[in-house]
Design goal:
535 residues, seven-stranded antiparallel beta sheet, six-stranded mixed beta sheet, 17 strands
């Protein structure tokens, strides 16, 4: 293995340590060394690190486990998993700690298995693919891939998100219209599983037709984290590439430079008419310009719709600066979206791609504040917003009964090459959408939990009132995104639509996910409030 550090080499090679947990290695290459892999600390409640390690990025959720086990290798994970299983302890698994819901930090968790120390990124000569460990955060992943090989992944804009959950849940970002989802480039995955008898296995699953564990690979192309086992490594190579291709051609190369445009839209310049026109313009443009072969697939944009308690909305857009008509395409887009809105047009800047990526990842202080409590909801959008949806959005965003500048609806460009993939080719079935919606609100005082969640629930229910208060399927909307999990969708007291939460997130792919679950986690040991259950 080259370009991975020495510690990563030892981790990958020393599979014999799995025998300590009664484990076996399935589909793995022959061990190249017998030195035991390093093992992470077991952090007990008296340890000063315990307080930090028992919560994540959403301070609503705090666990009180008997211990937190730091994981440093697949063999370490197998040993820790076997120990917890035999002792009858409930476990949860964490990589970056950015889960929006209580999948990791819950009162019934006895042990948190924390993979945040597994951060290696490099090229694996044996697999002929790029290797990314689950604890690696997105911005360092982009930096290492780009500086080392001139390639990248079409991943998310929140720099602190860990690769572990981001990739398993589908993973998307500003480059997805051009390059698809992250999982469209997933070649393989290393997963530590446990059977009903407590035997652990380190399983290597790839998309190769000959892989005996191909279904396990498929389940990690959008099935979500915490379902099938412990991911200890991903391998990434675009399906258009081959094992013999040079490494620098095996993943997408990002633009060398981008035209970067950030437009503030003050609330003082908006009324009901101009607000609803702006949001409709954004959705209508994407409906018209999001085919896989669209000449605008190199353009990615984010519209942050803050409540009127904030000073302004903002529109962040980028396009490959080296396209022959990049400025003209950007101008045409801005003219279409800002039509009917009176504002002073900001100038575009030409920035190196990685500089732009870093700026977008770090510009929002709310999203990067680890002290906040939050609530989140999602929707896929297939066609332009209706007038009823826009009226509901305007009413909630301007109500005097809720004045929170940290509440927002984020609209992300989607479609393009995302929609070039069949709905059942990966576990992500939403392959005809043009905009992705993220509803979210943040606060600090636990006593205000109900007020903030009630506002968000009300907004969501009103925007999606025509389909039972949730984003219906195969119409104007197309369900929800599992990386933005929302326990309300699994609560019949809130989700009264008659559409099961599993269908909202997975549509027709859910039965196959259940079959994979039965094969690799038959005792349903890995479970959380929205986990896949065995068939």
């Amino acid at each position: 293995m080259t370009a991975l550090d020495r510690r990563s080499l030892i981790r990958g090679a020393a599979v014999t340590a799995s025998a300590l947990a009664g484990g076996v290695v399935a589909g793995a290459p022959a061990a190249r060394a017998t030195t035991a892999s390093p093992t992470g600390d077991k952090v007990l409640p008296a340890d000063p690190r315990y307080l930090h390690l028992t919560t994540g990025n959403n301070q609503r959720f705090v666990a009180r486990p008997q211990y937190v086990k730091m994981i440093r290798s697949a063999a370490d994970a197998a040993a820790a998993l076997g120990e917890a299983f035999r002792a009858g302890k409930r476990v949860s698994v964490r990589s970056g700690g950015h889960c929006f819901a209580d999948f990791v930090c819950r009162p019934d968790v006895d042990v948190i298995l924390d993979l945040s120390e597994m951060t290696c990124v490099g090229y694996d000569d044996t697999m002929k693919a790029f290797a990314v460990e689950p604890g690696a955060r997105l911005l360092p992943v982009y930096e290492k891939l780009y500086k080392g090989w001139g390639v990248t992944l079409p991943g998310g804009v929140c720099y602190g998100v860990g690769a572990g959950g981001h990739i398993a849940g589908g993973g998307y970002g500003v480059l997805s219209r051009r390059d698809g989802l992250v999982v469209d480039h997933l070649y393989g995955v290393e997963v530590v599983t446990v059977d009903a008898a407590g035997t652990t296995r380190i399983v290597k699953a790839t998309r190769d037709a000959s892989s005996p564990h191909r279904d396990l690979w498929w389940a990690h192309t959008g099935g979500g984290g915490g379902n099938f086992g412990i991911v200890t490594r991903y391998w990434l190579r675009s399906p258009s590439s081959t094992r013999t291709a040079p490494a620098a051609t095996q993943l997408p190369a990002p633009p060398a430079r981008v035209l970067s445009h950030v437009q503030a839209i003050p609330w003082s310049a908006l009324d009901r008419t101009s607000f609803t026109r702006l949001v409709k313009n954004f959705s209508a443009w994407h409906e018209q310009n999001s085919a896989p072969d669209s000449p605008y697939k190199e353009l990615g944009s984010i519209l942050n719709v803050y409540t009127s308690a904030s000073a302004a909305l903002n529109l962040v857009t980028q396009i490959d600066a080296d396209l022959p008509d990049a400025q003209a395409r950007l101008d045409a887009y801005l003219n279409a979206v800002l039509d009917g809105v009176t504002t002073v047009r900001a100038p575009a800047r030409t920035l190196p791609w990685l500089q732009q990526t870093t700026m977008v990842a770090t510009i929002n202080p709310v999203l990067n504040d680890p002290t906040l409590r939050g609530a989140h909801k999602s929707a896929y959008v297939r066609t332009a917003f209706t007038d009823a949806q826009l009226d509901a959005l305007y009413a909630s965003m301007t109500t005097t009964a809720y004045r929170n500048p940290r509440a927002m609806l984020v609209l992300f460009s989607f479609g393009g090459q995302v929609n070039a993939v069949a709905p059942d080719a990966t576990a992500i079935p939403q392959r005809s959408s043009v905009v992705k919606m993220l509803y979210q609100t943040f606060w600090t005082n636990p006593a205000e939990d109900a007020a903030h969640q009630d506002w968000l629930r009300g907004l969501y229910a009103q925007v999606h009132a025509a389909t039972g208060g949730v984003p219906g399927l195969d119409g104007q909307t197309d369900g929800c995104y599992i990386n933005y999990p929302d326990n309300d969708m699994a609560d019949p007291a809130v989700n009264t639509s008659g559409i099961p939460w599993q269908t909202l997130y997975y549509k027709g792919n859910h039965p196959r996910l259940q079959r994979v679950k039965k094969a690799y986690d038959p005792s349903n040991y890995f479970r959380h409030p929205m986990s896949v259950t065995p068939a």
